[in-house]
Amino acid sequence: MADMRNDHGIEIRGLSKIFGPNAHQLAPLLDQGITKSELNEKHGHVLGLKDINISMSAGCIQVIMGLSGSGKSTLIRHINRLIDPTRGEVLVGSEDVVKMSPRELREFRRHKTAMVFQKFALLPHRNVLENTVYGLEIQGVPRNRQVDAAMHWIERVGLSGFEKSYPNQLSGGMQQRVGLARALSNDAPILLMDEAFSALDPLIRVDMQTILLELQKEIRKTIVFITHDLDEALRLGDRIAILRDGEVIQQGTAQEIVLTPADDYIMSFVEHVNRGKVVQVDTIMTPLHEGQVPQGGVTIMQGTLLEDAAREMLSAGSDRLTVVSADGAPIGSLSLQKLMSAMVRSDKAA
Amino acid sequence: MDWFWSFPHLSDDFLRDLRRAIDDSFRTFTRSYGDMLEAFFDPLRIFLIQSERLMLNTPWPIVLLVIAAIAWFASRSIWIVLGSVVTLFLIGMFDMWEDTMRTVSMIFVCTVIAIAVGIPLGILMAKSDRVRNVINPILDVMQTMPSFVYLIPVVMLLGIGRVPGLIAVVIYAIPPIIRLTNLGIRLVDRDVLEAADAFGSSSWQKLKNVQLPLALPTIMAGINQTIMMALAMVVIASMIGVQGLGQPVLRAINNQYFTLGVFNGLAIVGIAIIFDRVSQAYGKRLQKHLEIVHG
């Protein structure tokens, strides 16, 4: 099972995209380090992406974060080649999406990927059920199997009873659930989500994030999630890549990005983040030396978030905690003081 | 200074020879290929005759019932059905039933052919900018060229009768359906098309599942316009032997029969309104899913 999933990791290598009629002639300029504004002023071409290298593990949620114009939507469209790159490779398993023939590409899109869109992109003349079966219909799956799969996912996203409604009759949140059900019915190992929740109200957005995380525990797909919202990125992403002006400026886990921002730009983003909800106890604990005896206090599983650990310490009235690994062996300790200072930003000192 | 006051046109002899040369070669063409073309269009003639025979040989109460039923299923409006029946009833009372049936049959065949030719052309135009750039000026010519001008070669080739009339009507009436099919497909939301692509639709699947259904309201408007324009051509077509409501009008013009002209003119208006209301109501019903809006 694990091996099968590994086939569907995504490896992006040296991917660049220049928009404009002479993109290919201008591509060598990228090696000379031309910037986005230079390319625009001197050659009238727009730099979409510049030398992107990201390795996305199978079964994980990879978030691509950036503000508008950073190239994040361009990047996700290279994975199923809705946009052709100027150069570079997009490897899914052992196949290079860039080199596929139109027929291979169509098969790849039908069976390997499914996509959820910012503006939902539902078919207005089809009801919820007919929208949900779309991917399977395209694949030529027998009708009864289409409907079975669609009904299953309509129920899982909480839309039972709305099968016969038209998109126009539904709220934004409900329409995006249809978008999600449509993508999941496709049963593709890769799920591409292009700012899927950005058009929704904050409360509904959090709601949808919860649904996605719940589903992911069970479906374990390779999810590429585009967002401009750092909180969303930190909540969903197993790994996060931050994009600016078409370049990746930092990638890593949520903790790595919050604790060691690569530059001032990212620093300004993470400043306002609630670290207690991102950083885990094992990141800041003092590791136990061999043979050392734990000093008691509350016992906390590794991987626990600081906020949850603090809550347990407070309710137990203890000012120390011992971090234990999954098999129960103590691996480190942490004082309440250290925990608090990690939660309320100690980076100015560092 | 002579050239300044009168335009220095080509010499009269040259122009006369040019006209004669073109006329002669066209005449030769007609002589050698006229029969072949006639044979080519023969299925159309049979279609026209069959359709007319059907309309004329069916007893009037049944025709009335069928039209009322079509109006009902297309519009689901009792007022449109009632209006259609009353209009047809009045037409019958004023002894214009047969001519009306001939005209309706002619319009029906013209519309079917305009749809069968126009929609595929519109789709091609939407798919390729090059095709559009070729077809657009041709449509401009078709819409602005006085219909008498293209009646001449059509009559030379095919003589006088139903088929040349049909061709003249179709040439005049087909541009809106081509243009609006093209427009409707080009106006389809790009986000939805991208979604269709992302799920791996082939271009036929995209056309069938996304582009045509979403363009349908616009295409219906094109069909409606085509029907209206075909009706407007009825009188001119009667000049080359198309039977129906046009011929009494033509007779009325020639002999200054004021009342005859008005009656038949009103009958044309009457069936135009029936066609228009029924097809528009149908187009509107197709968009029902757009009407019920959330919140």
Automatic annotation (TrEMBL), chain A:
Gene Ontology MF terms in the entry: ATP binding
* EC annotation from Swiss-Prot or TrEMBL: 7.6.2.9
Q: Which PROSITE patterns match?
A: ABC_TRANSPORTER_1, ABC_TRANSPORTER_2
Q: Where is the ABC transporter domain?
A: 29-270
Q: Which reaction does it catalyse?
A: a quaternary ammonium(out) + ATP + H2O = a quaternary ammonium(in) + ADP + phosphate + H(+)
Q: Which UniProt keywords apply?
A: ATP-binding, Cell inner membrane, Cell membrane, Membrane, Nucleotide-binding, Transport
Query: How is it placed in the membrane, per its record?
Result: Peripheral membrane protein
Query: Which Pfam families does this UniProt record tie to the protein?
Result: ABC_tran (PF00005)
Record's superkingdom?
Answer: Bacteria
Its annotated compartments are: Cell inner membrane
EC class (word): translocase
Q: How does it assemble?
A: The complex is probably composed of two ATP-binding proteins, two transmembrane proteins and a solute-binding protein.
Entry similarity comment: Belongs to the ABC transporter superfamily.
Kindly provide the name given to this protein in its UniProt entry. Answer: Quaternary amine transport ATP-binding protein
Automatic annotation (TrEMBL), chain B:
SUPFAM superfamilies for this protein:
MetI-like
Gene3D superfamilies on file: MetI-like
Task: Report membrane topology.
Answer: Multi-pass membrane protein
Annotated ranges, domain ABC transmembrane type-1: 100-279
Protein's cellular compartments: Cell membrane
Q: Pfam families, from UniProt?
A: BPD_transp_1 (PF00528)
Q: Which family does it belong to?
A: Belongs to the binding-protein-dependent transport system permease family.
Protein name, as recorded: Proline/glycine betaine ABC transporter permease
Q: What lineage, starting at the top, does this entry show? A: Bacteria, Pseudomonadati, Pseudomonadota, Alphaproteobacteria, Hyphomicrobiales
